[in-house]
Request: fold
Amino acid sequence: MNKKMLVISAHPDDMELECGGTIAKFISKGYDAYHLILTSKYVDKASSSSLQRQNEAYEAARILGIKEVFFFEYSDSNIPLDGDIISKVDNLIDRLKPDTLISHHPFDSHQDHKVAAEIMFAVSRQGRISNVLSGSPLPYRPNIFAFKPQLFIDISGTIDLKLNAIRAYKSQFERYGGELLIERIEAMAKYYGWAIGCEYAECFEVIRMDDSLW
Ligand SMILES: [Zn+2]
Reply:
C-alpha cells in the first residue's frame, strides 16, 4: 500500500508556495498526497470568486499529482480553533490514515495559518501520525525569523512543477507580483538549496519524524 501524505492549508495556494516541490517529489516516490484547504469562502480585493479559487486549487493539484482536494467551509481570516474543526480534521485523518502531515508554522503572522498549525498539533496527538512537519513561512511575513528549519528536501527535480502549480492560481498570481513572485519563490528555493549543496530545496521544522518518511 502506498504511503500517504496530508497537507493542511489555510487557503488555496499556501502549500504550493511553501512546499509544492516536496509534495511533487514524494508523489514521485510513491506517496498518495491529499490537500485539505480549511477555507472556501473568500472576499478579496481581486474580486475572484470562491469557485474560481477552488478550481485553481484543483488545477494546481492536477499539476502536482495530488489525489484529492478537500475544502472545509470556513471563511478567509475567520478560521475558528475549536473542538468542532478539530473533530472534522480528526475524521479525515481517521479515514486517510496519513503517514505524513504537513501544515503551517505556528509563528506565521497570518492568524489562519497559526490556527492551521494548532490543528496540526491537535490531530497528531498520541503518535498517530509518524511524520509531522511545519512548512516555511514566506519572507514577507515578519515572523519568518521564528522559523528554524531542520529538514531540507532537494526539490531540483520538481521545482518546475512547483512554479507551474503556483501559476495555476491565476486570481492570486498577478495580485502577488506575477512573474516577480515566481522569481522570488525560485530564489528562495535556490537559497535553501545552497544550504545543502543542491540546486533547489524546500525546508521544514520537524515536529516529529521517524524513518518511515523515506
Ligand atoms: Zn494563506
About this structure: Residues 10-11, 14, 110, 113 surround zinc ion (CB under 6 Å). The chain has a mean pLDDT of 94. The domain at 4-213 is CATH 3.40.50.10320 (Rossmann fold).
